[in-house]
Predict the 3D structure of the following.
Amino acid sequence: HLFFGDFVFRDEHGHEIARAADLRTLISLLRTVPAESLAYHSGRHDFSRWLRARGEFEVAARVRSRLKEDYPRLEELRETLARDIDGYRRERNRGSVNPFRLDLFDGEEGIVQIGGGSLGGKGRGLAFASRLLDETRLSERFPGVRVTVPAAVVVGTGIFDAFLDGNGLRAFALQCEDEDESQRRILAAPLPDEAREALGRVIKVFRGPLAVRSSSLLEDSPQQPLAGIYGTWLLPNDHPDPAHRLAQLMDAVKQVYATTFGHRARAFLEATQYRMEEEAMAVVIQRLVGARHGNRFYPHLSGVARSHNYYPQAPALPEDGIAAVALGLGRTVAEGEPCLRFSPAHPSHILDHASVESMLASAQRHFWALELGHDAPHWEHDGPLSRLPLRAAEEDGTLSAVASTYSPENHAVYDGVGRQGVRLVTFAPVLKHGVFPLAPILRELLALGASSTRLPVEIEFAATLGSAGEPAEMGFLQLRPVAMSVRNDDVDLTRFPRKRVFCESPSILGHGRWDGLTDWVVVDQHRYERSQSTEVAAAVAHFNARLTAEGRTYGLIGVGRWGSSQPWLGIPVKWEDISGAR
């Protein structure tokens, strides 16, 4: 009678019909119990009394005002009550990390953790981003756009520890230097029962593509962020057999586990104060932002933004930040392929658009998409991704919102795709004509992140522009602090005589001080052949291994982008090839 137990649905004679122990069950029963029971409890204000007894005062007051006399049909009252309580439940769950419960997991927005231990770096960043959006209600400032952290499940580091210890893999994985053998043993071992059962529920609830991402203890830390060191797998998750989809998901989780002990991670940790024994891996399983177009899936746009820009172009200032955005999946930006860079504070001032020639040279011509309909048990890396020409996006109807057209006859670039010519991804419809409020949203997200962490931040995002009555969505995919220089005090370069200067540059990425350098490894720009960049990368890796083995720290000077995925734009080294550079 004091409403501290289950909510007991009764008929008008007081006979029990059903019970609800929590909000989710109450919402479900509200939609199914006989109308007479609904009228009976509503007339006695039982719903509001039960909610008040649990401290849910806000929704209790809302529900108490719903009088049956105000509704011509009880079905309208039923739907209103269910909508009020369900909306409150969703709002309450946003911005918090909830433990995974097999019977209650429904895949709604929010962060849910499987197992104990830590969420890891990416998991912490997602939880923090979710809380920021919840507290600031950012979506309310952009009508027609859902700004959200897509629903995510984090497999905690406790599951990783149980997996290694339960299968006797810890000592082997730490000591094994054969990356292929280590991966084979890890993929062959079963996940703990708790994880298999939970992931079975996840795969039934999450329908549609998923991103399976690393979230290690050391990842995205302010002192030494390990961005890009571990693995990410994208799953179509569209096979009709849930058991097949579960096998793919478990395989992807173990693929991420295997990258914990890969050569890249070992090389990175050797260059820091950390030891591999200190590392532990959580895994983030997150709904992939995008839309289906035939047999492929991708967002209208995705990218990365930073709150501090070391190379601002007037009128932008360093604190205005910088964003890199591309059509399709974020691999275009992550691997340094041609994309659009702009300051969110000055979206109409784009250096690459200063001339027709620069637009032609810098514009994106291909995009990445996830292939659907694949039933392979696993993929070696990333997932079944395809690099497609822009005509595929034009066939899908996604190009018009982000592209312009080059007319060779006039040697001019026109916004949109309404005429014949060469298609270029310029984002003119978005940045100039306001098809989607990308720049204002990025300004808000960067300001929120920087003010809340009191550090420069980097964020990842992806967006769909909406169609057929569906709202547009801006997915806030990651928030991480940006590692700053070792030292940030002012340096007086005038006190050094010119004859002592070894090399200099008028434009640098911050500054710092390193003592104890013994060597330089230099790629001579005067003799460098871009067609031989792969051979040059191998030579750099040779000297890195030799100097590192001798305990000698060195400075590294090269041509173009270190680690470029495009061999013609730089030297395609991996992290382990330059791990000894200071």
